Amino acid sequence: MSLTLLTGFLAVMLLTYVVPGPDFAIVLRYATRSRRAGRLAAAGVLTGVCLHGTAAALGLSALLAKSATAFMVVKVVGAAYLLFLGVQALWSSRRGAPTSAPAPVEDGTRDRRAFVQGFLTNASNPKAMLFFVSLLPQFISDGMPVLPQTLLLGLITVAFGVVWWGLFVVLADRIRGFLGRPAVRRVLDRVTGVAFIGLGIRLLRTPAAAA
Predict the structure, then answer these.
(1) To which H or E segment does residue 122 belong?
(2) Which DSSP symbol is given to 123?
(3) In whole angstroms, what is the distance from residue 42 CA to residue 52 CA?
(4) Residue 210, Cβ neighbours under 10 Å: how many?
(5) What is the rounded CA–CA span in Å between residue 210 and residue 187?
(6) pLDDT at 180 (0 to 100)
């Protein structure tokens, strides 16, 4: 892979991670509860990235993207999950539930929930799948084996995510005292809930060819 292609890919990575989306919302929600919960949510997201990257390298994502029915199923499932998270966040803010409070480190159930929700948010997002199918090939050098290059780009994507989410969680943890106030938590839950619902509706309304 040439240095020009690699530089361009890193620039795209930066834009992809900086622009808020479902992954951003779920990591933020847990990072403002505790640093550990934020890291686990980010680990779940990156596990989903690994899944999409492996599927793309094996050609499975391309096959799924070409099937209108299969792609629609994935899109509906992903949108339904985002809507569920949105309603859950809004309900939590309405009743002032302790689910918005910082999670104790020893709470294994809450830890698992952070990881699982991070994973499902990314894994069920067809746009994350199409990222590897439509974008990565543009950075593949001609005349070289495709599989090793695809795996390398996937590895770079995950490594970039580890750095980005690590810094993101630390920053969120530093302002957790402010974000942990009950009134602020309610506002944050409402904003996050509306964001999830909006992302879910947007995903449902996105044509398959442009999703």
Answers:
(1) helix 108-123
(2) H
(3) 15
(4) 7
(5) 33
(6) 64
Asked whether the CA dihedral 76, 82, 86, 91 is positive or negative, the reply is: positive
* Spatial separation of the C-alpha atoms in residues 1 and 156, rounded to whole Å: 13
Task: Enter the tokens of residue 84.
Answer: 């569920």
Tokens of 146: 């495709």
pLDDT value for 1 = 61
* H helices, E strands: number in the chain: 10, 0
**Given this model, what pLDDT does residue 118 score?**
93
DSSP output for 46-110? HHHHHHHHHHHHTTHHHHHHH-HHHHHHHHHHHHHHHHHHHHHHHHHHHHT-GGGSPPPTT-HHH
Q: What is the mean pLDDT of each run of 10 residues along the chain (211 residues)?
A: 76 78 87 89 94 80 66 75 78 57 50 90 82 73 76 87 92 76 74 78 64 45
